[in-house]
Protein 1
Amino acid sequence: MIQSSAPSDPTLVPQDIPVSFGPGDRVAVLLPLPVEGAYDYLVPEGVSVAVGDLVEVPLGRRFDVGVVWGAGDGGIDPAKLKEVVHRLDLPCLPKALLSFIDWVADYTVQPRGVVLRMTLRSSRGLKPQVSETHLIQAKDLPPKLKLTDARRKVLDTLGERTFVGAGLLAKTAGVSASVVKGLVDAGAIDTVLAAPPPMFSPPDPDHPGVVLEPDQISAADDLVGAVDQGFSVSLLEGVTGSGKTEVYFEPIAAALKMKRQILVLVPEISLTTQWLDRFRNRFGVDPAVWHSDVTGKVRRETWRAVATGEASVVVGARSALFLPFTNLGLIVVDEEHDGGFKQEDGVIYHARDMAVVRAREGGIPIILASATPSLESLLNAQAGRYRHVRLESRVGGAVMPEVTLVNMVRTPPEKGEWGRSWLAPPLVEAVNETLAAGEQALLFLNRRGYAPLTLCSTCGHRLHCPSCTAWLVEHRVAKRLQCHHCGFVAPRPEVCPSCGKAESFVPCGPGIERVAEEAAARWPKARVVAVASDTLERPSAMAALVDAVGRHQIDIIVGTQVLAKGHHFPGLTLVGVVDADLGLSSWDLRAGERTHQLLSQVSGRAGRARKRGRVYLQTHDPNHPVLQALKVADADAFLEAETDGRQGLGMPPFGRLVAVILSGTKEDAVRQAGQQLARAVPAAPDIEVLGPAPAFMALLRGRHRHRFLVKGPRNRLLQPFIRAWLGSVKLPSSVRIQVDVDPYSFY
Ligand code: ADP
Ligand code: ZN
């Protein structure tokens, strides 16, 4: 893993001395294209550029913006070289960012230009910053000025103030714009050009926030102490509700005082209004925000504000890691264990691991925060490569919830008049008690829709997606069938396409809509809501829901993992996990770890205020080590077992994996490409190549998929082997190869 190969000794920030080039010099310009190398250009008269500068250059018949990567190599006849058009009016990218891009390209086995594209993409269409005309009163009124009533109104309105544009001033004064113009012409009003007001106000590190508790203070001090010490990795581990966010705000404040920029990476869905409220409460202003919903002009201007240093704190999803910070001083990765940090298409990378590399290249500290850290990070902490900062207790003396395992074999759900039931008697009883006490319950099930499978009760035909190896999921509220992999939607057919029988389809198994239906039938007086990513399409819907739950306008929430993270509901005292086995049966390397993390996070939603919470886990396998560990709240025992298991098999982080995925619309071509690659595997005694084999999802979005899994020892990087192997074979262009280093998904 990358994390472990990062050196642990702090190095100080290298002084950035840009290397400059003048007219007649050759420079190598890397373009955001799928190419490995940089192209040479000549610097024209009157222009000077430095390494890291953004420049516009001709490329074929068009122009593109690239980055000066270094000196040109001199191989090409200067007469044939084209000239740089001009240098963009933006600060040059720091050396740490350039070497980071090089490193990511090497590690992920991608052309450098493709990685650079992740940095430059959002600068496309960035217009030069234009100054605006501001109107201010002239120092002295011209002696011969004719003062009409209208003119007097304008001068009175203007007073000591500044107006942007004549229209606004005229409107405020209640006169026509020609009056203002007349005063400007007469010299009674001066115009000045000024930059537009800043988009982001500077956060105030001394703004008073919550008063930290003693163990929070010592954790915060520990982290603050590392802020000016160069590169280091700190793992901030603390149970849910221990106040990790408030704690890592302190090193952020320290970095702000040093006039450095700060990046906070969060999984996309946990960037909540609650988090932003807390930030505002601590620093007085909003941070810059970066995620897929930030689009258009706001996205471009945010990009510029990061480049110019105007945005000092950025909170964002994984792609924020590639923003052009010129003065980055601290990175925080919140919920560092979260699978959402793994980007699964395009450049496949893990944002947490790459964030550690970005910190190392920049010679700055990084904090990884989680209630349930990844095995990788925990082992790094145990080995002393990471500093380990722990918060042992919940804020305000709240205690951890009590966990009960509900044996679904011994106490199965009882059928009700609404049909099948998914809630077993012990959980039903717990909900009764919770409602009677005027408290709230969360029923957790990580399955969207009404039922995961719909089949014909006459012939057994299952409705599946035409483009994926997947069943169609019925969404009753939206009245349709949906593929959760490609987005295919269809109305529910009237008759079975296989046997022609009408009204023969039956739902199999529960999704949250079906559990919500049961809850509404069982507790008719309770206010029930079903919540999943597809019911919360906009961030504002999430905010409204969080607000409604907080005000106790909802009694029972039936929800997927969108609610498992980051939210704090004081009245929520019961969490029922409808199917704790879901995910455990998978053969995925991290199934156990992931289930443990997810269920711990969900459990952490219960009883965060004064009352002790209760958690009920419904399972068919109560002796499973993951569930036993959750019951006794002994994460260490679980991790020890998990560590032993992986070590025995040489699996990450004790070994390295790279997945190679071939895909195409023609299955034959994909299979043949697999065989061709199989014959070309270079000899390497310590590297094992498994496959090719059809992927678990043999068809995905209409593409057939075959996979290889390459396995090697921990002390050997597999990338040179992969490059040599893939470079030795010419595959038809209809077959796409994806390289997934350190894979997290195995389907
Ligand atoms: P975690 O991320 O560890 O689960 P949070 O940082 O989300 O914890 O904090 C949980 C809740 O407790 C938040 O509402 C937070 O504002 C509050 N909180 C944290 N520390 C304190 C404190 N010292 N005093 C009062 N409230 C606090
Ligand atoms: Zn599909």
Protein 2
Amino acid sequence: MQSTNRTDAKISRLKTGILDLSERFEHNPYFIATHRSLALSLPLIMLGAIALLLRHPPFPAFGFLKSPHFTSFCDALIDCSFGIAALVVLIGFSITLTNLQPWRPGQLRANSALTTMVVVSCFFVIVAPDGDAGFLEVLSLRDNILTALATSALASWLLFRLSQFRALRLPVGAFGHDPLIGDVFLLMPAAMATIVIFCIAKMLLMISIAPGLEALFASFLVSIPAMANDQLIYSLLYEFSAQVLWFFGLHGPNILSPVHEVVFDQAADANALAARAETMPPYILTAQFFDFFTRMGGSGSTLCLILALVIAGKTATSRKFAFIALIPALFNVNEPLMYGIPLVLNPLYVIPLITTPLVQAFVAYNAIDLHLVPRITEYATWTTPVFASGYLITGSIAGSLLQVVGLVIGTLIYVPFVRLSEQVGMLRNVKLLETLNNQVESQHAQFAGAHLLEMHGAEGRLATTLARDLDEAVKSSNQLFLEYQPQINVRNREVSGTEALLRWEHPSLGRIAPPLIIALAEESGYLDELGFFILREACTKRAEWSHWLAEDCTLAVNVSPRQLSNPDFCEKALHIIRESGLTPKQVELEITETSALLPDKRAVLTLHELRIAGVRIALDDFGMGHTSIHYLKELPLDTIKIDRSLTNVALNKANELIVKSILELGESMSISVMVEGIEEEEQLERFMSLGCTVFQGYLFSKPMPAVAFPSFAQSLYMEDAKQSESAPA
Ligand code: C2E
Ligand code: MG
Ligand code: MG
């Protein structure tokens, strides 16, 4: 028991360690730029993956696809997608990284176009071939993705550092009317110095070691065939090298092609000969062994990852992505997952990416060695789907069964990492949500609007995604709904009203705070639609409750000042109220004071029109803003709701005095006063002693689902009836 506890503690410590580490990575701008630049190239990768599949049809029946015209069509598609992916990565990286650079006064502001130019130039310094030959090759995904990423990171880092040296700034003033020209001239020496440093580095590399980064890798790995044999350890070593290369974005099997030529091709030929002579094939390891038993869905056995995403993925996005990536993966094309999740350079997936194929190699080797599965004697194109391929290369159903076992084991290895990765993503989103909420609540937002969609970086992206999701939620599903919080009149112990509060249960982020929903709707232009949805929904419910509630029990609905600027608001709102069967005086619209309201003559006029029609108007969160008294003068008010920040009168004498004067003011202007945010009995007693009678707060009830409201109201009436029955006449 004790040892189980100790193991649990160790696992949870390990998990926290991985989470901390990955969080540190997640905040590193170079890491963010790597992931975003790979993700940016995803449309090209998908196109390239499909073209590649058509170029290498899995079954002979699709031989008609091999016509010369169709082949060159596919080649053109591959060239313009995979073929230039390195360039896309360079550009994406430079722009993302530049935009993530913090700017401090006194420093030069980084310019993304300029960084891109320097980075592209440095890339060509490193990879440009001699003469024209192979010019396009250097831009390809297969050959130069790692060089592209490494160059982008190094060159932009160097440029940012050099540009901070005063000695490297040209003494120029403003150039004409365009500040960009001034920027370019200021950064010119640093940009030129960066490119020159890359040239020197390339020369040194050429002189001292070997030409090009990947050539360095290849020359090291070619030494592996020297140890070639047919042992289990060799299969593990080969697979390990191929997977490590993949982790760095390099096409492992292609780089290790010398191993194929020297070892595996000969083994395959010998096996085929033996099969024809009906003798025992001498080798276990051939290229097809790895293609079909350890790379199901492509390197990293990404088919297992797809299954793990479908089984364990909690977010709709990851499941949707898994289904999109499934089609190419069925034909062993894994680029969408490699660059889309991404698996490349992702510390969260490095363990399963490497261990899954190793475990599968171990199982497959032993299954063949123990004669549970026949040795490989036949050839199948690498795009042949799983199960069919297992059968084709071994000539036995046992080959397909071995693939089933490999898939199950691989999926089990991937599942915990899918969970971990989602957990990390969730933590990141929770933090981003917090930032967005703070932005909405900030003083700046009160005055100038939150401008969520214009925010830079991950926050801005989350805001845009949420705005898109909100659009869908408003139009269709049941993610948006209302809760109701009772307002209690303590004098007659009755529910004097109920406030409708908006709720959004986001499918992956959970509850989103209402002010953020409203701010997003406001910025994206569908506040009107959302506002009328809320009013209609609330009025319909209040009308349904008519026989449970007293006729004068009001329905309070929050309205944002922006909604009131709509010239049709009054007419439409009255139409909704009447259509639901309520009378205007049963509805109270709550307006929060913001700077947007008072200067807007149209909004104030709308309030007057509504009031004339009988709708009640309440001023919400009174006492929070700077212009509260001004509001009392300008707006036609029935109710003032004292803000929660003032309810803790016990803590602060000033609060008590403010509340007293609000009460006096309300009485003299015939405006009723309600106190919000009452949580404790002691608060209630103090306010009652100050003369307040209507309250809203957790002490009475938290906001509750619509179905719970009638029974709450009824229980209060019944309690009241019991008390009056037992009271002495
Ligand atoms: P509000 O209109 O002042 O609503 C009262 C808020 O205080 C609600 O938060 C409620 O759950 C919370 N509250 C009530 N009693 C207590 C208490 O005793 N203690 C504490 N700590 N909190 C209490 P909620 O639902 O998160 O709404 C926040 C704000 O979002 C609302 O403040 C309102 O300004 C806005 N909002 C909510 N629904 C809507 C809507 O349908 N339309 C518009 N335009 N704004 C809305
Ligand atoms: Mg309110
Ligand atoms: Mg309030």
